[in-house]
Specification:
By secondary structure, this protein is an all-alpha fold. It has a domain of about 70 residues. About 70% of the residues lie in helices and about 0% in strands. It contains 6 helices and no strands. α1 packs antiparallel against α2, α1 packs antiparallel against α4 and α4 crosses α6. The longest helix has about 60 residues. The chain is elongated. It starts with 16 loop residues before the first helix and ends with a helix.
């Protein structure tokens, strides 16, 4: 999906400065909640910020400060490492162990051949050179394998950075929709439920705003904004 370039956010007739102030106060907390929710529900989206619903509510009410988006709400418990991180670590350990065994085996082969050379210098000289060459090839192969694994790990880091950039761009695209849903919730009683009648009314209002995004494309994010606001009521 292409990023929207319109920087002006259109608002409905009932919108006041109070709605703008309320949104500006909570959007940082909701953005963190948005990233955490995507990280929990998707393998490739969002960021692990250790952000809970309780954290979002406290941050949105001002009882707790809102950390920068690149900072976790609280440090990750070392015992609670993600499966992906654990898998990568085990993979690297396994490859390192294989490389060490290959090098060790090659060194043992060289030592054996040198012992034979001590006993039969003349007869085994040619054979020793051949075996030495094979051992050198094994060491070179092991080094190449280790280098390939390092390159793969670096590629994973680069991909993770690209996913983070994509997540930030998606939030910027969705912010207008979430903002609308969050603020329109204040126009209804606390126990008011989202239903077909309400959705039809909001759809008409949304289309009347003449935004660059259709109702069908924005509906999910608008509903999320509505639900976020409902937690505070």
């Amino acid at each position: 999906m292409e990023s929207r370039t319109d920087t002006t956010t259109r608002t409905p007739a009932w919108w006041t400065d109070k709605h703008t102030t309320a949104w500006d106060h909570v959007k940082g907390a909701l953005e963190r909640d948005w990233e955490q929710s995507k990280a929990d529900l998707s393998r490739n989206g969002g960021r692990k910020l250790n952000q809970t619903v309780g954290d979002t509510l406290k941050q949105s009410t001002g009882s707790e400060p809102i950390p920068p988006l690149d900072m976790k709400t609280r440090p990750t418990d070392p015992k609670a490492a993600t499966k992906e991180e654990e898998k990568a670590r085990k993979s690297m350990d396994k490859e390192s162990e294989k490389s060490a065994k290959t090098v060790s085996k090659a060194q043992e082969d060289i030592a054996k051949e040198h012992n034979k050379l001590s006993e039969k210098v003349g007869d085994l000289r040619e054979g020793l050179a051949t075996q030495h060459g094979k051992a050198s090839d094994k060491i070179a192969d092991a080094q190449d394998t280790a280098a390939e694994n390092i390159a793969k790990d670096r590629s994973k880091i680069d991909e993770a950075g690209a996913r983070q950039d994509e997540a930030v761009a998606k939030w910027r695209d969705a912010e207008k929709d979430v903002r609308y849903g969050f603020s329109v919730r204040s126009q209804y009683p606390a126990n008011y439920s989202w239903d077909d009648k309400l959705e039809g009314k909001l759809r008409g209002e949304w289309e009347a705003l003449d935004t660059d995004q259709s109702w069908s494309a924005s509906r999910t994010s608008i509903r999320q904004g509505w639900d976020y606001a409902g937690r505070k009521l």
